Amino acid sequence: MLYCFISGQAEEDRELKWSARLRIALGSARGIAYLHHDCSPKIVHRDIKSSNILLDENLEPHVSDFGLAKLLVDEDAHVTTVVAGTFGYLAPEYLQSGRATEKSDVYSFGVLMLELVTGKRPTDPAFVRRGLNVVGWMNTLLKENRLEDVVDKRCTDAEMEVVETLLEIAARCTDANPDERPTMNQVLQLLEQEVMSPCPSELYESQSDYC
């Protein structure tokens, strides 16, 4: 059986521990990187969001719902006259031009990472009423040195150094300039080397993945 992951919850709204969220981030990045770099032709998903990340009984993530996906066969294969996807996850240049690229998926993954860290939907009323989305809200809090206010309060086991690293990666993924965003292979490498390698023991211990 597969469950949807939504805002830090899975399986009948049970909250996920920090270590489980890290594994979901890594597994999701691995799946998207496969679409971008290992498929021929490449695949742009165009609708990366938490409800399209399905979790199995071991909380292994599976990227799902390819109804909007595009094959990058030629230069114009990813140009569309109708913007598709989910509001809150869409890259600004995709909204403006209708041109979906691997970098627009990277932006959506960055939003997904912020959802994992904050436990908030991209269009949570807490910051939408201030005229912000989750990206703008995060950037505002970081400028005010309020790192502890970004993290989901349910994640009592979160280490601030790891949180800071994740937010740095998410910030790069959601850069307004798509040329400044990393590729998904680079994102995967950053997660493996800078997030998972320093703390492997807590991620693979046999314990509950729920708070």
From TrEMBL:
Record InterPro entries: Kinase-like_dom_sf, LRR_Rcpt-Like_S/T_Kinase, Prot_kinase_dom, Ser/Thr_kinase_AS
Domain of life: Eukaryota
Enzyme class: transferase
Annotated signal peptide: none
SMART domains, sorted: S_TKc
Keywords: ATP-binding, Kinase, Membrane, Nucleotide-binding, Phosphoprotein, Receptor, Serine/threonine-protein kinase, Transferase, Transmembrane, Transmembrane helix
Cellular compartments per GO CC: membrane
EC number: 2.7.11.1
Membrane-topology annotation of the record: Single-pass type I membrane protein
GO MF entries: ATP binding; protein serine/threonine kinase activity
Catalytic activity: L-seryl-[protein] + ATP = O-phospho-L-seryl-[protein] + ADP + H(+); L-threonyl-[protein] + ATP = O-phospho-L-threonyl-[protein] + ADP + H(+)
Domain Protein kinase: 1-196
One Pfam match: Pkinase
Localization per Swiss-Prot or TrEMBL: Membrane
Keyword Transport applies: no
Name of this chain's protein: non-specific serine/threonine protein kinase
Gene source species: Linum tenue
